[in-house]
Amino acid sequence: MVKFITASLIVIMSIHSAWCQVEPKEPKEPLGLALENFKYPFPIQYIKLHIQGQDVSMAYMDIKPVANENGKTVLFLHGKNFFGAYWEKSIRFMAALGYRVIVPDQVGFGKSSKASIVYSFQLLAEQTKKLLDSLSIQTVAVVGHSMGGMLATRFTLMYPARVSHLILENPIGLEDYKVKVSYSSIEKEYQKELARTEASIRKYHETYYVVWKQEYEQYVQVQYRWTLSAEYNRLAWVNALTSHMIYTQPVVYEFANIKRPTLLIIGQADRTSIGKDALSEEERKTVGQYPTLGRKIAESITGAHLIEFENVGHIPHLENTERFNQALKDFIAQ
User: Where are the membrane-spanning stretches (predicted)?
Assistant: First the structure.
């Protein structure tokens, strides 16, 4: 009996000791709406803008060539669920080759002001031009990913003389979402934004990649920690406004008007589409088909070059950085 009690006490004490060694998870720190407490890989500067009666700030990184300056500039434009910092590896690569690199956070995103305004790609293109004007940059090679691809297309159409090369990386807007996705009001989109959770954000981000890596978690955490802010309702409203912009302002009908050297880099496993969650399972199979969409758009742009990345999803510059950077280097050098 004594041996049994002693053995039982040892087991209980071991369990208690192990339980005590498990550290409770620290509550996650909310992020300010302008990512005040989130560090970017390069110094941030700001340009002051006046938009629709509001004074706003547009954040940007201006990275000088590391060596062998060639006098050329690359402009990187981010996607909707991201911000300029996710271009870090490509920025370092191009700067090492002698390029000056400009990376703005568009108004409504990242470290820029979260303004409640009427968003349009024309507006964002105009503000981007103002940024380049303020830096006395006349010509750029424009690289746009996802929503940034829609913006890069609009910028090129509006200011063709300012663009030496256009590079579209898995851009959204290769199809008109209105054709298959029913209209969702800004108010409804706002409620969806308010309902976001850490799990739902991560689940969506996981669709971007063929193989999930821990390094991608930081982008989940930025969006989740934003939801913890006491001011998140402001950002949720801006997110709804920019979703409405994407849905209502397709660029697919204008690719044939692009007259600048164009490269499309398309991850073949990508199936990203706006509003896909509102479609039936069968309908989802008809949208976001990037292998088909990439070839169709490449045919519609005179002289466009298409590079297909097999076994890569929505963000080639993160999933296959080395190949993406090499493709960028080779194309811009032409």
Answer: none
